[in-house]
Amino acid sequence: MMESIKNSTNNIKFMDFCAGIGAGRLGLEKNGLSCVGFSEIDKQAEITYRKFFGEEEMNYGDLMKIDTDKLPDFDMMIAGFPCQTFSVIGQRKGMGDDRGQIIFGLIKIMLAKKVKYFILENVKGLTNHDNGNSLKVIKNKLEEAGYLVSCDVLNSIDYGVPQMRERIYLIGVRKDIAPKNFIYFFPERQVRVNVKDFLIDTKELEFNEKKESYETFLKYLRNRYNHGRYDLGEFLKKDYLVIDTRQSDLRLYDNKVPTLRTGRHGVLYVRNGKFRKLSGYESLLLQGFPKELTKKVDGVIEEIHLLKQAGNAMTVNVIEAVARELFKVL
User: Using CA atoms, how far apart are residues 158 and 165, in angstroms rounded to an integer?
Assistant: First the structure.
């Protein structure tokens, strides 16, 4: 089935908007589609993107300022449009924030280029932002632009990575080319995978008394919220126990990791009886980036940037599965 889909999609071209480091691109390329350019304003993300895909890649910059006449022709749009305005972590300003207006810039490009299909991704918080009105406005605008739109919340942990990451996906097909009685079915959940196959970094990232931040961690365990609740010795007996340090409480995870986020750098885990910090390399693996690609930036791009970029990325596996289901129908 996968080969037949690739054979039917090898002439389909797409553009990668709000590209980040290219997770959406990878998901589509795994289905046989070809990328003709990308749009990204974060310079650090662009550096990583080029390490992955090549220095010659064309970045068309800020999508809100793009002259659509200068864009190449393409059939499909992929975009993880800015989510901070809808996230429970952010201030949830939604459409009142400039970043919330990006969706209208994307629609303008869709119309100008007569885009046939799209996959858009955002945080789960979009589903209930402003009592659901933000999502309703977005869907209505996409439908007014001439698209059949399907949306659902999927969790990355159900699609081949051990990361709990709920995101909403909007799938669109232009009405005039959609098959009769077109219905899009979101991909079925897959068998869950083992976290130890992803926490494999060999760099010296042990977290112990030699690290200045280790004392801060010990103080955290002794604070008024955690005092007497946890035993370090017991933690160290459980290989691949994942530990997330939050502002007030500490959370433990078995065979899974919490949602990777831009500002979350405090994820620890136990391996061979020692604490380790989750690395940028491992974070990319947890987002579905293949090892051979991830090795291109491991030790080349600073850890702090890789952690941030992985937290901002889409999950490759989910995009691959969502696109595969779309082209099965088409």
Answer: 9
Same domain, 172 and 220: no
Kindly tell me if the per-residue pLDDT of 278 is higher than 90: yes
pTM of the model: 0.92
Of 18, 35, 83, 151, which one is the catalytic site residue?
83
Q: What is the token pair recorded at 66?
A: 């793009």
- 320 in the same domain as 280: no
Q: What is the CATH number of the domain that holds 32?
A: 3.40.50.150
d(CA 110, CA 227): 55
Within 8 A by CB and 6+ apart from 248, the residues are 223, 225
Tokens of 51: 């390490």
Number of domains the chain is built from: 2
Residues 204 and 276 in one domain: yes
Taking the C-alpha atoms of residue 185 and residue 319, their distance in angstroms, rounded to an integer, is: 14
Range of the domain at 7: 2-189+315-329
User: How far apart, in whole angstroms, are the C-alpha atoms of residue 33 and residue 53?
Assistant: 14
Strand bridging mode 76-79 / 147-155? unpaired
- Under DSSP, is residue 110 helix (H, G, I), strand (E, B) or coil? helix
**What pLDDT score does 61 carry?**
97
Residues 48 and 183 in one domain: yes
**Mean pLDDT on 318-330:** 96
Neighbours of 164 (CB within 10 A): 15
**Known catalytic residue at 18:** no
